[in-house]
Amino acid sequence: MKTIAYTALHYGKDYLGYAIRSIIDHVDEYHVLYTSKGSHGHRTNLVCPDSREELKAIARAAAGDKLTWHEGVWTQEGQHRDAIHELVPDADVVLVLDADEIWEKGLAEHVVLGSPFGKSRTYRIPIIHYWRSFRRCVLHDPAYPIRVILPKIENGEATIDTYQRINHMGYAIRPAMMYYKWQLHGHKNEMRDFDTWFDEVYLKNRQVDCHPIGSEWWNPEQVEPLDYMPEWMQEHPYWGKDVIE
Asked: What is the pLDDT of residues 63-75, one digit of tens each?
């Protein structure tokens, strides 16, 4: 059985190496699908804060000889993500690894050893979302993303029943990176007024109703990060910061 992981990548140097570290021991190959343009349907004149050279060096250091680096231009997020099936057509299990997602200790092993889980093609995994630091987190959002694909099964979707979580760090980033991120985001047209959200919610570190589009679940709670994160996340430069700036 061939197990791979891949990242559809444009930016993400703050957490990319840590994300890779959380799954790399449990896959045969790791693929990066890099684009210099972004692939969520929006464009900006702003220069990406993360360079191709920085990202490639991080991926190589974390994945070693398991890394295969691909480059291309994709105009839509789905097209970008689906390209993995053309690039690695013989994969039996595909882990979808976003650059800002660190899998809890033991989760990747549980997923890989449990594959195939049944007759479904795609599987959702529970996820929690950190807000401006490692100690504030949205714990109860029920919208879980698809993070496991069994490409040789035609259809069906299920959720993996596990107490382990994916740690989503996409809102525990530098304000400059957050600003850039939302100029390209696939849900940009759905969000509330960006400048108001960025100034009044993100920069002021509001603690209720924080989601840029809106969600009753996005009310961060205080957490002990090691209840969810691998212990080696203590090596991260943002560890211990009250607010990431």
From this structure: 999 999 999 988 8
Q: Are strands 122-124 and 157-159 parallel, antiparallel or unpaired?
A: parallel
Taking the C-alpha atoms of residue 77 and residue 60, their distance in angstroms, rounded to an integer, is 24
Span of 37-51, 114-128, 154-168 with lowest mean pLDDT: 37-51
Domain containing residue 169: 3-173+221-235
Best CA proximity match to 30, nearest among 2, 61, 68: 68
To the nearest 10°, report the CA torsion of 127, 19, 155, 28.
Answer: -150
pLDDT at 186 over 60: no
Q: Residue 91 contacts by C-beta under 8 Å, 6 or more apart in sequence?
A: 2, 3, 4, 84, 85, 151
Q: Record the tokens describing residue 59, joined without a space.
A: 């991926």
Residue 55 lies in a domain: yes
Give the number of domains in the chain: 1
Tell me the pTM.
Answer: 0.94
Q: 156 in a domain, yes or no? A: yes
What CATH number does residue 62 fall under?
3.90.550
